[in-house]
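ok posting inputs for the 6-O-phosphono-beta-D-fructofuranose job
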Amino acid sequence: MEQGVQRSGTSLGARLSDALGLAADRQLLLHSSRDLMDAESLRVWARDALSGNRLVVVSNREPYSHRRGPGGVRMNRNPGGLVVALDAVLRATGGTWVAHGSGDADEEYSDKRGRLAVPEDGPAYTLARQWLSEGDVRRYYAGFANGALWPLSHLVFVRPRLDELDWESYRQVNRRFARAALEEVGRDPGVVLLQDYHLAMCAGYIKAERPDLRVALFWHIPWPGPDVFRVLPWKEALLDGLLANDVLGFHLREHGMSFLETVASELEARVDFARMTVDRRGHTTRIRAFPIGTDVDGIARHSSGAACRAATARWRERLGLGPGPVALGVDRLDYTKGIPERFQALRRLLEKYPRWRGSLQFVQVGVPTRVELPEYRELTARVEALAQGLNRDFGSVGRPFLHLIKHDLDFADVVALYRLGNVAAVTPLHDGMNLVAKEYVAARPDLGGALVLSRFTGAAREFRTAALVNPYDTEAVADAMDEVLSTPTSEARRRMAALRERLLRNTIYDWAKDLLDCVLRLDPQFEEGR
Ligand code: F6P
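and the output
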């Protein structure tokens, strides 16, 4: 029995059968008696476990931004997987979230220190916005984080840009985020949870002033192998920055092992592969795998409600969708997401299986992202051209084969689309986890829909019963699409039930509890017991 853990969740089997309400699936799902972590049980657990420690989360992207539009200023909930997942955690635990205030009306809606209580409809935690200049965003965010570390970490054959001034800006901005986190902790004991590859240097600056604080960083993307990482001119400094954390989390154990191999080949340090620890200059860093989950209950509840049903109907009408099946892609317009490769596979599907011509329609959400970088602008142009080509060859007047929705959507709109899709095609070339796959399954307690999923995502490790594909293999993706579209409903429902069962074993609340638990209990005795 874990110390201090109070569970208010019900058993997995019982909850699944409630959520699904399907007698046929009960037999399939009732075998598990594991308790579920939910928002309430995380809240109760965190209150005891944190006992007086301040909780500060730091990420580049903010969960909510204030933006000007034709109807005045709106507070938007940002759609990225990271922020949606962490927002659910902080709503449960409370605390402070330090992030870049990127909305054009953010300053007007925050106090002098950039702080405000969020969410608007029931404040649960503090958002502490940091102001970055255009130059910072160009060099730290677009330049180093997304121009160097992003392509370096994803095996997609995009060359990283390595610029000394970007690196300098990255360190400066990391120092600013560190200072902000220290201010939020004040003189109290605290836990700082850093998020992602934007903040690799933060822990060092925090620990230099407050070595007593517990600091963890969760790296949301893959970790490159030592052969790739060694091209980074500032590799030792970056590794030392990461090793200042007490805990360094990855989605997969394999990413953690890759990190250990990188440290072993680049630094003088004691690397223990069995215990997954690094000792360097008297400090121990634990490397752990915490596969991120999603707010399964929250999404399922929302997706089953009347508002979502109405929004799904509005999408059908707005897009003029016919009675045939609808397939769906939801991605940021990022070259790691495999959108051109997916479109090529769709062309092959329609050529090889002509029965889908005139009946199947594809809806692709492509949220513009990182447009400061030419690779992203080029990708957008390529995606548009491929979409036009598909519509020219397979659409008809007033009835395009492919709808390309190329703007930001509210999360509620995305969930409404999840309910529309008979198939979701989630086919990144490389992805740490991919929360779209998990959100889609979370949104289908009706057991409708099917998932075609790239093998090169972290999610594929959990969703072994999805239609797994190599996204580079056009023929195989076309065949998989045909196979899932042709699957009889009873079998498709059985497959979706199996995906949901897997999903419910590890939600965002389990992820948060496991990460926090690990950083709060660094004593060797506890480590032995894990
Ligand atoms: O995949 C890495 C990641 O940081 C996600 O965690 C997040 O959802 C996404 O990139 C968002 O990117 P950006 O903040 O650049 O829009």
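notes: DSSP finds 21 helices and 18 strands in the chain. The pocket of 6-O-phosphono-beta-D-fructofuranose is lined by residues 60-61, 80-82, 196, 220-221, 369-370 (CB under 6 Å).
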